[in-house]
Amino acid sequence: MSEPTSLPRRAFLRGAGTAIALPFLDAMLPGSILGSLGLAAEPAKKPPLRMAFLYVPNGVHMQSWTPAKEGTGFELPPILRPLKPFQNDILILSGLTQDKAHPNGDGPGDHARAAAAFLTGCQPRKTGGANIRVGVSVDQVAAQKIGGATRFASLELGCEEGAQSGSCDSGYSCAYSNNLSWRSESSFLAKETDPRQVFERLFPNLATRQSANARKYRQSVLDFVLEDASKLRARLGATDQRKVDEYLTAIREIEARLDKAEKEARERKEAEKPPAGAVKLAQSMPSSVPSKYQDHIRLMGDLFMLALQADLTRVATFMLANEGSNRSYKDIGVPDGHHDLSHHGNEKPKQEKIEKINVFQVEQLAYVLEKLKAAKEGGRSLLDSCMILYGSGISDGNAHNHNKLPILLAGKGGGSIRTGRHVRYPKNTPLNNLFLSLLDRIGAPVEKLGDSTGRLEGLT
Q1: Could you tell me if 328 and 334 are in contact, meaning their C-beta atoms sit under 8 angstroms apart?
Q2: CA distance 283 to 129
Q3: Are residues 63 and 90 in the same domain?
Q4: Shared domain check, 401 and 365
Q5: Do 28 and 13 share a structural domain?
Q6: In a domain, 334, yes or no
Q7: 30: domain range?
Q8: Do 389 and 346 have their domain in common?
């Protein structure tokens, strides 16, 4: 049997119970001259498309979000200015609505409905009990159709834990406020907020399954694949060698940040130790969540980016915070609770603080986009092969409205989306129309999703 002339797309570095998926390399394109690594798979024709959804709670200060001009060459408003380096990579979509987040006779509970309806376009059943019901979310429609091509059908990430039962918002289950992904009408996929747990899922290794006391002696997962990496590197061209080196360096840097966060957590626990003779409470495992919120977001963002780069998944959701979150933003000079501020009553000082939070959130998006754009595959950036939707299920937090939502789409969808524009849609255009168009592009078409009325025009 002749050897393949291309490196298989599903290639891994292996060693001692470790498997590290490789990013897309030029050697994976048909016709590349590369000997077999003993992996039976077809070479890739082109980089795969990825689809992801990033969610922020409590709406935004819309006056500082919406560009004044439509089309190209628009000036970025204050909240979106951190995206200046990526203006040609984004599409601002104004006027889209998620009607099923409105009360529609169900009374208060807009925060719960905002998150539950955001990716489903379905009205959640008002209940604080176990009989929750909403609808299948767009990410899971895609995961069910294309998820078999990757190790993980989908990846659900977040930065804020939350209850999954009981009532959190005016009689609505906490499950609605704290989750975006719904596999079925009554089954959600809980997000992972612990960076260490995410890392160990993406880069499994027997050495990571140690007791808390042994964590500080953990070896890098890269230590177990050095021999395989060396063999691979010798067969690659200079460009692919650089890609592999940068990718492995990024993994090692994440490990170092995780170790630092866990060390700081241990030190905090030690400092808070009860005095001698006091009753000792059971201690939980050291946390890998950094003490600073921005560090947590960026650590999860890097894991999110690596999962897409290594084609471990092509579908992901990332909640920067739960809907209705009252998190304080002391690190940026806003000590007030976010949800409290969102009920600003048109008071300018509160609106200015909301805008400051919104700018911070977009800065985190810019961080992720920078990483995606810097990663190259198949002659273009990883961002070009993505469709990253960023937004909220509420527009103005004070009004609790769900029309004219703040929606931004980043990435060119493999060349199928014309970015660098601001497009304004007619009143009450369903957000789910956009989802139908994204599903078409990623190879998971459906005729209808939630309250969709057709494909969204204007993307190309």
Answers
A1: yes
A2: 31
A3: yes
A4: yes
A5: yes
A6: yes
A7: 1-46+221-272
A8: yes
Q: Are residues 41 and 66 in the same domain?
A: no
Q: How does strand 50-55 pair with strand 315-319?
A: parallel
Q: How many residues appear in the chain?
A: 460
- Closest to 161 measured CA to CA, from 146, 149, 174, 147: 174
Let me know whether 395 and 345 are in one domain. Answer: yes
Same domain, 67 and 132: yes
- Quote the tokens at residue 371: 């990483």
CATH (domain of 188):
3.40.720
Tell me, yes or no, whether 385 and 346 share the same domain.
yes
Residue among 454, 381, 367, 446 at smallest CA distance from 50? 381
In this structure, is residue 459 part of a structural domain? no
When divided into structural domains, the chain yields a total of 2
pLDDT in tens, the chain (460 residues): 334 445 666 677 877 667 788 888 888 877 654 433 433 345 556 889 999 999 999 999 999 999 999 999 999 999 999 999 999 999 999 999 999 999 999 999 999 999 999 999 999 999 999 999 999 999 999 999 999 999 999 999 999 999 999 999 999 999 999 999 999 999 999 999 999 999 999 998 754 454 444 444 456 888 888 888 888 888 888 989 999 999 999 999 999 999 999 998 888 877 776 665 555 544 454 588 999 999 999 999 999 999 999 999 999 999 999 999 999 999 999 999 999 999 999 999 999 999 999 999 999 999 999 999 999 988 899 999 999 999 999 999 999 999 999 999 999 999 999 999 999 999 999 999 999 999 999 999 999 999 999 999 999 9
Q: For residue 399, with 0-12 CB atoms within 10 Å meaning exposed, 13-18 middle and 19 or more buried, which class applies?
A: middle
Q: Which residues 6+ apart lie within 8 Å of 339 measured at CB?
A: 57, 58, 111, 324, 325, 326, 397
The residues near 420 (Cβ < 8 Å, ≥ 6 apart) are 72, 87, 88, 89, 90, 91
25-56 burial, b if ≥16 CB within 10 A, otherwise e? bbbbbeebebeebeeeeebbebbbbbbbbbbb
Confirm whether 249 is domain-assigned.
yes
In a domain, 199, yes or no: no
